[in-house]
Amino acid sequence: MVTSRLSSDPLIIGGRHFQSRLFTGTGKYPTMELMQKSIERSDCDMVTVAVRRVQSVAAGHAGLMEAIDWTRIWMLPNTAGCTTDEEAVRVARLGRELAKLAGQEDNTFVKLEVIPDSRHLLPDPIGTLRAAEQLVKEGFTVLPYINADPLLAKHLEEAGCATVMPLGSPIGSGQGLNNAANISLIIENAGVPVVVDAGIGVPSEAAQALELGADAVLVNSAIAMAGNPPAMAEAMGQAVLAGRTAFLSGRLPRRTQATASSPTTGLVGEEGTTT
Known about the structure:
Layout: E1 11-13, E2 16-18, E3 22-24, H1 32-42, E4 46-50, H2 51-55, H3 64-67, E5 74-78, H4 85-101, E6 109-112, H5 125-137, E7 141-146, H6 150-159, E8 165-166, H7 180-189, E9 195-197, H8 203-212, E10 216-219, H9 221-224, H10 229-249
Parallel strand pairs: 3-4, 3-10, 4-5, 6-7, 7-8, 9-10
Antiparallel strand pairs: 1-2
Helix pairs in contact: 1-10, 4-5, 5-6, 6-7, 8-10
């Protein structure tokens, strides 16, 4: 397994340090064993869990709490399935209790999702902001899932959110970063970490997000629904590391004209050149 970590470059969210910039999920896996192997090979530090599905023991979620080593993996409870801000706040509170059951007494993290649109699964900006404001008041570390809207991202940051999580494209679509220009604007103006969430289908798209300057990505469907989920998880981890390293290295500036990569002086036949 190739590590997805840069030990000298930790990601800090809500005062907590994470070595991996890849977050993964727990849904859509064919088997619990494949989920476990995928989390291990991704080398991630944080895994998101749908609170409502765990609470109701939905299909594929039975035994989930026991299947993950919560002494190593930080739980990110999410409010998936919530259609209003009031519902999301209630489920976030349940998520905090779920984290305590996993032994994470100080875990106040919540991935905030308010999605009334069941067809396209696009988040409600107004409901998300309302829920975020309430959850911040209650002491939560809020990671809101949003459209790639730079103004909304700034409002959520000002409301006290620990990150913003703009979508690359609709959940589970595998369309990649359709909103790259807006994501870049969010990154440029953000004073909190930016985590690209949803739409990533292949490792090159995860690398692209980090190359743009995103601080992390959350990938679930592309791993869980791959032909070989553990191998894809490892590939995503490698891509995130490559993208972050490239961003820190500084890319070649774009130019309108070609620039020779070979020396243009001292050529054979030039005056003063010996043969």
